[in-house]
Amino acid sequence: MKRILIVCKGNICRSPTAAVVLETKARAIGLNIEVDSAGVENYHVGDAPDKRSIRHAAKRGYDLSKNRARQIQEEDFEKFDFIWAADHENISHLRTLCPVIYYSKISLFLGNKPLPDPYYGEAKEFENVLNLIEQRVESLIKSTDWMN
Question: What is the CATH number of the domain that holds 80?
Answer without folding.
Answer: 3.40.50.2300
